[in-house]
Design a protein that fits this description.
about 80 residues; alpha+beta; 2 domains; two-stranded parallel sheet; two-stranded antiparallel ribbon
Length: about 80
């Protein structure tokens, strides 16, 4: 559909970025793809909603059960337990 110019919008639950690798525009008003659950390349701060690119250091922290600090609001990128 994209190659024929017929794709208006694609809603996806894929998080692997396959649509972007195929040249589809992601998000925004002119984007063709709406990612319903985000992707594996970014991390969103639950406090200030800043979207950040994953780093190797952050990946290691998350694998150890720790949340990295958000550089924009200097709180953890996940809410505290209730």
């Amino acid at each position: 559909m994209h190659e024929r110019g017929k794709l208006v919008r694609c809603y996806t639950q894929n998080i692997d970025g396959i649509e972007e690798s195929e040249g589809l525009m992601i998000g925004g008003k002119t984007g063709q793809v709406c990612q319903l659950h985000g992707d594996i390349h970014t991390l969103r701060c639950d406090y200030c909603n800043t979207i950040l690119q994953y780093t190797l250091e952050w990946t290691e922290m998350l694998l150890e059960g720790e949340a990295p600090e958000c550089p924009d609001c200097t709180t953890k990128c996940n809410p505290p337990p209730l």
